[in-house]
């Protein structure tokens, strides 16, 4: 790692103090001049980051991207994956928040390294799962997350196997995960590295991968924000080892790189020689939450806060240049507004959007001018050439695929369209026997001649 974390604590104090006198923490959304172009392309914003991303936290719609498919080191942002696995264990009852954890030898050794982010763990004490969880997220404590991993799996290697399976279950196939903390492999023992990895290896993912990981974490465990938004907290309070944990996310309200119009409440920073400065951030503004990722932001000195400046530029760009449009339930789309019916009173049925859907569009654009759709039948309801009547109103009769002009609707999971349920607002009635017979006779003669 480039920087001593002990020195960083001093720098945090300096920058935070400067913020109080210079008004940095009161900067607004418009302190970085918004770009005039409204596009998801990388040319829209001047960033130091090698790769960057902004997505809607609920839908995963990509709003901005720069080299978002490039596989790069992620450093301690790795802990978001580790924490997801830990929360799975708690949800399943295999861990409890107040469960006591004994520190293993390797986790203890790492925790004593003051050149890394750590809280000093003791071999003679036990710590609760909650204490170690908080230290991992607030202070990026490497020994703490390793101790949790050992508690779950008995070894770092076996916990990494869980992490690899986790990201694979989300459709992430380009992940390179070799340890639980995000440290460079050279910082940990050979036994704690995943078999086959080298001392120079680091965990690597794409910006889109990190966006998807954060999206899934927030969807499943939104309570994680209660911890990631904590600015400072004491670890092992009231003991000789008490450590004040200052959150490395300086964009939290009241900290050095906070912006009054961007109430950031998460998620995780990461720093290493190879990775540079990284940050997965999230903010909820005007009722809409977005997730941002920067990988490889400038890392020239202790006071370089480029990852936060880059993040602020992306967040400002999104909220300044885009509007959230709601496509209401009941909306129909040209060329995708009907499906054929087999033996129905009517030969076709209207297809409409079953539920409200939100999309981010450039300011000034409308759903009608940007969004188009195709429709496919629900095959479980099909007989021969169409939907088999009768069918109750508001049934799931098909799938509408919404696409955007100039790839306006792309998603962090790789989808190039928003797939949503199409429904029939009225009952599809079956034709009586006489109508069915008449149609059969008419078709017979039609085909005959």
Which strand order spans the largest sheet, edge to edge or round the barrel? 2-1-11-10-9
Termini, distance in Å? 82 Å
How many H/I helical runs?
A: 11
Given helix and strand content, the structural type is: alpha+beta
Largest sheet: 5 strands, antiparallel
**Overall geometric form:** elongated
Q: Uncertain regions: pLDDT < 50 for 5+ in a row?
A: 1-7, 16-39
Quantity of strands, as a count: 21
CATH class of the largest domain: Alpha Beta
Relative strand content: 15-25%
Per the CATH scheme, the topology name of the largest domain is Beta-lactamase
Domain module count: 2
InterPro entries: Beta-lactam/transpept-like (IPR012338), Peniciliin-bd_prot_C_sf (IPR015956), Peptidase_S11 (IPR018044), Peptidase_S11_C (IPR012907), Peptidase_S11_C_sf (IPR037167), Peptidase_S11_N (IPR001967)
GO molecular function: serine-type D-Ala-D-Ala carboxypeptidase activity
Protein name: serine-type D-Ala-D-Ala carboxypeptidase
Keywords: Carboxypeptidase, Cell shape, Cell wall biogenesis/degradation, Hydrolase, Peptidoglycan synthesis, Protease, Signal
